[in-house]
Structure formats: structure tokens, C-alpha cells
Amino acid sequence: MYQGYLSLFDENSVDVLTQLVAKNTEQLFTFFNIDFLAKEITGIPYVMLLYKGQYMARMIEGCNAVSVIVLFVSFVVSFSGKLKATLFFIIGGSVFIYVLNIIRIGLLCMGLYWFPEQESLLHDVVFPLFIYGVVFVLWIVWVNKFSLYAK
After folding, report:
1. Looking at the domain assignment, is residue 47 inside a domain?
2. Tens digits of residue pLDDT in 99-114
């Protein structure tokens, strides 16, 4: 379904969910009076992320955490529990992952600003480990506390 959604956008545009995540990141950091800007330019398939007026990163579809949320939901459904608990855990966990991803994107830009020589480590190791580590902990909580398999 998500791939079908993405097919609605051409290769020179940014999908709505990625735009939303970029805008939410900007709003969160602006709320804390941090100089952060998400800038979209027509005809470019990414959102430019600026920290302290300096271009730090580009945000593409893979940065919006939708694939991580799909993975999270798939696992929870695979080891389902009672319907009410499953729905609450899916909704709560998805919102939690979404918010953490927004924080992750902003912190990554700040990290790139202060430690540009560590770009590969920050982008390819630290921050994916952060988001997937949280998802793994949520899975452990789900299986041990709410899943029917826990019994």
C-alpha cells in the first residue's frame, strides 16, 4: 500500500509524508528556539535541512520513518494479542516512533554541524541504531507483556 502511495509522486517531488516529517522537525526545534529550517524547493526530490542557516542534510522519503513504522506494526500483528491491546500498542508505538524520528532528524543535523567529519558514523550507525533500537525494545515489551504468545 505504501509503495502505491509513493507511486503517486514523480521523481522530482517530495511525498506529503516526508514533507510533514520535515515540517514537524522544523516546528519542534523552532519551539525550543533552535535555528532549524526545512526548505523545500520545487523540482528537487528532497527537503533541505538547515541548522544555524547552514545546509546540513537532505531529507528523502526513506527518512520519514514510515518503513520503520510498517516494520513495527507488522511484527506486532504477527505476534498479536487482544484486539484492544494490539490497536493501542500499534497506535501508541507508531506515534512514539514518529516523534522519536523527528527528534532524531534534528539531532542528526545538529551533530553534522558540530562534527562534520563524523557524518558516516552519525548517519549510518548511531542514528539508525537509535531508531531501530527503540523499535526492538518496543517489540520485546510487546511480546513479553501483551502478545498471546507471552503466555
Report:
1. yes
2. 999 999 999 999 999 9
- pTM reported for the whole predicted model: 0.90
21 contacts 65 by C-beta, under 8 angstroms = yes
DSSP-H helix ranges across 1-148: 2-6, 16-31, 66-78, 83-114, 119-121, 127-141
State the chain's maximal CA–CA distance in angstroms: 54
Q: What is the pLDDT of residues 66-75, one digit of tens each?
A: 999 999 999 9
Where in the sequence is the domain holding 60, given as residue range(s)? 8-150
Q: Is residue 105 part of a domain?
A: yes
Give the whole-angstrom CA distance, residue 123 versus residue 41: 23
Asked if 45 and 126 touch (Cβ cutoff 8 Å), the reply is: no
Positive or negative CA dihedral for 68, 138, 20, 120?
A: negative
1, part of any domain: no
Which residues lie across from 50 on neighbouring strands? 37, 55
